[in-house]
């Protein structure tokens, strides 16, 4: 009996140790090892970062200090900015500006929570716009007046296509930016589809922090797009990634009349915003590091208690939207996602009267991605873009 008790006690201690391992974020050594591993495999959020650049930056980092992180990645990026400015070949200049942008962007990841990270973010935007000067067809920086501020977005329309053209309103996530989705959607131009890339509330250059009514900034974007004669206002679709998918799912309901469809890629809907779930996801190893600080930043809050009190208001179920009229929708995700539970995807898929389509990767994590077989670019090219092409081919009458 005593042996059984000792065995039971050992088992309980093992479970406690396993649980406690998920109640703290990664150490700096763990962050460095995981970052390099992701750079070597092209995994998010190190997608596009060369392993040698990652080694260079990580070798300069000794602590978890946010400004030290930003300075290390920025130092490597500075070298590519210098190469770009000195290059006589436009292709070399463009490639170096692009490489610099990825490094500055990673220097501010997952959110510009310090002076150094804010500086890295500003340099990232600068590098990206220098890269964009080489874009063909051109990228237009659009500034839309909004509530005493402005909404900044990137508009690109396909060349040699009859006007007006169909368009995707592409919304970035918690730690991605409009620059990230603009790079993704460059692939849509060859299919005759334009895009307008914009930040999620509380991120990038968004004029609002995240609140349950921050979707009004996207309604303003739709107002603006309707004034552009080159864009077919009857063929606009929205795609949101992660936190951006929350806004896409909401717009599918609130702006159903103005959208031909919506792609919601790992959309937080209801369960994600419940305090018990959020406490459990704060230190998921699927996320590289600092999920909690990034979440606080997008809501403009300073404490976990404030955040947990606010989050339930974000629920689309609590707002009474689920089950109402909506645009056609594609829901994308992975069953092994530790950031947005499958319960949320199922809730969205099974609500309302408009049939929903879904692509769920049984081996996939957040965004439906899985190493090797279904990375982000493949999901976009094989799953999302074909669905968008099909729905943008059907004009919605207002």
Describe this structure in words.
- The protein is an alpha/beta fold and 398 residues long.
- The protein has two domains: 27-123, no CATH class; 138-392, Rossmann fold, CATH 3.40.50.
- The chain contains 14 helices and eight strands.
- The protein has helices at 2-20, 28-41, 51-58, 66-86, 90-107, 115-132, 178-185, 216-225, 243-254, 275-281, 291-299, 304-310, 342-349, 376-392; strands at 140-146, 149-156, 165-171, 194-198, 231-241, 261-265, 329-334, 356-361.
- It has an eight-stranded mixed β-sheet with strand order 1-2-4-3-5-6-7-8, sandwiched between helices.
- Helix 3 (51-58) crosses helix 4 (66-86).
- The longest helix has 21 residues, at 66-86.
- The chain is globular, with a radius of gyration of 22 Å.
- It starts with a helix and ends in a 6-residue tail after the last helix.
